[in-house]
Amino acid sequence: MNRSALVVFSGGQDSTTCLFWAMENFEKVEAITFNYNQRHRAEIDCASKIAKELHIPHLVLDMSLLNQLAPNALTRNDLEIKSGDNGQLPNTFVDGRNLLFLSFAAVSAKQKGIRHIVTGVCETDFSGYPDCRDIFIKSLNVTLNLAMDYTFVIDTPLMWIDKADTWELADQLGKLEYIQKNTLTCYNGIMGVGCGECPACKLRSAGLEKYLQKKATHNL
Q1: 26 annotated among ligand-binding-site residues
Q2: Which of 72, 83, 85, 143 is the most exposed place for a label (fewest CB within 10 A)?
Q3: pTM of this prediction?
Q4: Is there a binding annotation on residue 205?
Q5: How far apart are CA 124 and CA 119, in angstroms?
């Protein structure tokens, strides 16, 4: 297995942590970002800025067709962000997003001779998104290998850890402060600590507080 990886990269906390993780574990790392006319162009600008600072080859791919097919709160500014109730998915879930992103990432990776695809999906803090589940990733991994007659490995370093553990991983990589200040996770497009009110900011903030308490208690 070759020692190169392609990171599915949004410029948010999780994918940036995965980018640094990949840089520690692979000799060559590239990043791919998808422009699906998401709510905030700042997300793409953030990803591009980080990749440039880290000297990571970075491809931004036009995926605007996804916006046409699956309108929701992440692709429409006129929709209020709402959490899922009574078993309903939150309206920030984009149908087919990870299926399409990972499939197109695999096509790009094969052209470059890359076999590892790194993504920040997580089943522990997955907000009920079905395409963040381990069973989906394993299924897609098999499908991509068969579809292209090429051996891919989809790496998911965050799959079984929560947000506090993700912050701990960032700290272990020596990048906690960088990720705090330079990533964009907020659904309202605010860098760093974000708006503090949207579901993404609340999850991020609670995870950081939990980790910092653990760090102080155990002198990590």
Answers
A1: no
A2: 85
A3: 0.88
A4: no
A5: 15
Angstrom distances, CA of residue 79 to CA of 74, 153, 165: 8, 36, 32
Consult the annotation and say whether 220 binds a ligand: no
Q: Is 122 annotated as a binding residue?
A: no
> Is 217 annotated as a binding-site member?
no
Q: Kindly provide the b/e burial profile for residues 105-128, where b requires at least 16 CB atoms within 10 angstroms of the residue's own CB.
A: bbebbbeeebbbbbbbbbbebeee
- Has 198 been labeled as part of a binding site? yes
d(CA 217, CA 220): 8
Identify the structural domains of the chain with CATH numbers, from first to last: 4-218 (3.40.50.620)
Asked whether residue 139 is marked as a ligand-binding residue, the answer is: no
Does 120 belong to an annotated binding site?
no
pLDDT in tens, 148-200: 999 999 999 999 999 999 999 999 999 999 999 999 999 888 999 999 998 88
Is 16 annotated to bind a ligand? Reply is yes
